[in-house]
Please model this.
Amino acid sequence: MKRRTCVVALAAALSTVASAQAPAPRAAGSPGDGSSWAQFRGNPRLTGVSTSAPPAQLKLLWKYEAGDSVDSSPAIADGAVYFGSLTGDLTSLDLSTGKVRWKYATGGSIGESSPAVAGAAVYIGDGNGVVHAVRAADGQKIWTFKTQQEVKSSPVVAGTTVLAGSYDGFLYALDAATGKLKWKFETLGPVHATPAVQSGIVFIAGCDESFRGVSLETGKEVVEIVAGANTGASPVVDGDRAYFGTFNNEVLAFDIKAKKILWRYENPDRQFPFYSSAALFGGKVIVGSRDKLVHALDAATGKAAWTFATRARVDSSPAVAGGRVYVGSNDGRLYVLDAATGQKQWEFEAGSALVSSPAVAAGKVVIGSADGVVYCFG
Model:
């Protein structure tokens, strides 16, 4: 069957390489204590919610010049910040000072793939289609695994398994310690979005117009719901519900148990794609759109609760902490909004597009910009 694609993929024929060995992974930081934001969207269900509340009025603590665009969203764990940039470097900074701890050269550019930290290792994908495992302590390579095309999907660690999608159309499950292939699942298009994991099921959405659930243990499909649209957004999963926006200008809610679409939302005034991945907080689905708005939708009904207007499209994915929403915009500003009302509480002008999504942990907010600057606020 011919694959449908929603974005241009790199053409690369690469083989699998696995070397060395990592310690068995453990969760970074203490569960639920807010000290870590160990992966894209903060946790395997991709809720975008932190239990650590930064100050109501943020101050710039430090900034770091990465040398090229930072589309990768930061991870925070054990007092360190991790991020990728188009230079191809996976960089680790000290969370308190912003000073460089180490750099690891992947050999390919790092786009939107964001690092995942588990125990002694950091995992990330690159534009050459390679998934890297690197020692969190010193940036030394543990292993690499090559897919057939670029990896923009952010790795997710579930137990002893690393999950990552590739533009070659496969979702890969790798042994976290060795990088050896456990299984791979073929879709009908590039796997751009980050997988969500809940109760032993891996949920993916992407360029084949379907929302799928795959067994973490076997790699066999257990759920398929036709979405009817391609998406670059990652799903947020909560019990029997899942939510994500599409390139068909809609946000969709899925009933996983009934295997059907629960509701659809479309801006009645301006139809633009939703590329941002949604946060789920307080009964609301909070998501950015290319219509320049941040939307908050009732999770049960899909009705609009509030919108907030920025000056450019919002591809950054919102993070929520302490009843506040943190989100970047292509207008070059980081916004802090009241999660209940959408009222602006604070903003910072970076001067360059913020495509990266904020990481919130240990009372701090970290985000990267298109001109290669990483900012830390607290």
Observations:
- Residues 200 and 216 are 5 Å apart (CA to CA).
- The first strand starts at residue 49 and ends at 50.
- The chain has a mean pLDDT of 92.
- The two ends are 51 Å apart (CA to CA).
